[in-house]
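Quick review question:
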């Protein structure tokens, strides 16, 4: 239920802001707005202002529209013809159409800026043990290092304030096909050494968990500690308790929970046979040796070991909060970076350089809406900002049924001095609808594949 309500609330807010952009620009340009609707279908609530605009909340809250005075959509009195949308100069029509996506981008800036100003608890940028045979392991990362700064080859070093920020920089560099320079230190104030992660060698086409496994930076550092123990699991059978700190496994010191989890998974061979392990643990100040035999579990085509317990303590957290001006600049920067990344991914998908599996639809958005809402209102605002950027960028694409398609028509009109013919307009609209339906179908298929897989 929370997922559905969060999704509907997010869609309602983002659609309302988008249509408000069209509405306010139309009013500023002197074009009468007949109806402002959030949703489609049967009206649930209506209200009319002094200017005669009817505001509507409809039964199906999955979109919205602004209906302006326009000779193409209904009869217009002769004395009002100069006010109709289709009679406006080109620059005014373009401004009204562009105002919707622009409102979504402005909302994203405001949300990102507010979250940055308020401050969000995030995991400290301390690295866990790298996954075996990964880029991080090959460049000498061992786990426990503090990342103080990062930059692509042509950039100046930028401070890294949290693990989430580090993941964002890794994503950007990997999609750009560039290496990433990171500065590692023993603590937040210690001098750092520069290490280059050769991300350009990955040939990235998908951004998912497997990407970060290949890089070797999957999660922030957490202590190799036993959490909740299930009553019928291998950990309970071995006598492990919540709070036990694992010092070594078969004589190998455990640096962090990531390393411990890897050792547990590797305890089962290709035939599903488990090898007993000797764990040295610390409990209430005393050191104990226990034998743990992980149980085999099938994951896809492979067998992995499981002990029936949460492994790893909560990572160390830090609150990243900026001053008002810095927060506003951060909002602008983040909106610009997410917009550029979205366009880059779309371009790569069109050129076949990125998988179409990156395309997400309403089910994925609803799932993320529910997850962010469970984490709190600040993560939900960050989620709203991300989707608002995506909505703004999507609507600026030059597809005939979107705002960007109308701007494409206006560009043609500015270049040749006349609008496209009615025949071509009809053909382009049909093609745009067909393409949009195909994209929506593909996105829905990807959603189902993610949720069921």
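Suggested answer, residue by residue:
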């Amino acid at each position: 239920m929370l997922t559905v309500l969060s999704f509907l609330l997010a869609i309602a807010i983002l659609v309302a802001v988008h249509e408000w952009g069209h509405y306010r620009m139309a009013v500023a340009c002197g074009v009468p707005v007949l109806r402002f609707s959030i949703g489609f279908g049967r009206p649930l609530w209506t209200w009319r202002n002094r200017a005669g605009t009817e505001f509507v909340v409809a039964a199906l809250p999955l979109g919205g529209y602004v209906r302006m005075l326009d000779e193409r959509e209904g009869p217009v009195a002769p004395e009002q013809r100069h006010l109709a949308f289709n009679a406006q100069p080109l620059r005014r029509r373009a401004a009204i159409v562009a105002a919707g996506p622009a409102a979504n981008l402005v909302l994203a800036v405001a949300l990102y800026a507010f979250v940055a100003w308020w401050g969000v608890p995030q995991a400290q940028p301390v690295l866990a043990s790298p996954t075996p045979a990964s880029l991080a392991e090959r460049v000498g990362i061992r786990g426990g290092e503090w990342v103080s700064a990062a930059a692509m080859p042509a950039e100046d070093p930028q401070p890294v304030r949290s693990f989430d920020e580090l993941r964002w920089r890794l994503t950007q560099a990997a999609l750009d096909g560039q290496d990433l320079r990171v500065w590692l230190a023993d603590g937040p104030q210690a001098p750092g050494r520069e290490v280059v992660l050769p991300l350009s060698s990955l040939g990235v086409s998908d951004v998912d968990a497997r990407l970060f496994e290949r890089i070797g930076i999957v999660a922030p550092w957490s202590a190799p500690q036993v959490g909740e123990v299930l009553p019928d699991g291998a950990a309970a059978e071995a006598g492990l308790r919540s709070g036990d700190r694992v010092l070594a496994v078969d004589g190998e010191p455990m640096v962090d929970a990531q390393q411990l989890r890897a050792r547990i998974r590797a305890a089962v061979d290709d035939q599903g046979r488990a090898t007993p392990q000797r764990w040295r643990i610390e409990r209430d100040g005393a050191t104990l040796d226990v034998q743990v035999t992980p149980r085999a579990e099938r994951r896809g085509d492979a067998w992995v070991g499981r002990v029936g317990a949460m492994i790893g303590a909560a990572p160390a957290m830090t609150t990243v909060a900026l001053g008002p001006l810095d927060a506003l600049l951060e909002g602008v920067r983040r909106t610009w970076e997410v917009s550029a990344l979205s366009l880059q991914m779309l371009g790569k998908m069109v050129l076949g350089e990125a998988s179409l599996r990156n395309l997400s639809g309403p089910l994925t958005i609803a799932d993320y809406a529910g997850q962010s809402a469970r984490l709190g209102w600040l993560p939900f605002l960050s989620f709203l900002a991300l989707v608002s950027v995506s909505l703004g960028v999507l609507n600026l694409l030059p597809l005939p049924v979107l705002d960007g398609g109308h701007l494409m028509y206006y560009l043609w009109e500015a270049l040749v001095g006349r609008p496209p013919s009615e025949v071509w307009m009809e053909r382009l609209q049909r093609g745009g609808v067909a393409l949009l339906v195909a994209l929506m179908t593909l996105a829905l298929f990807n959603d189902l594949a993610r949720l069921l897989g």
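Why it works: The domain at 121-220+315-320 is CATH 2.30.42.10 (Pdz3 Domain). The CA atoms of residues 348 and 354 lie 5 Å apart.
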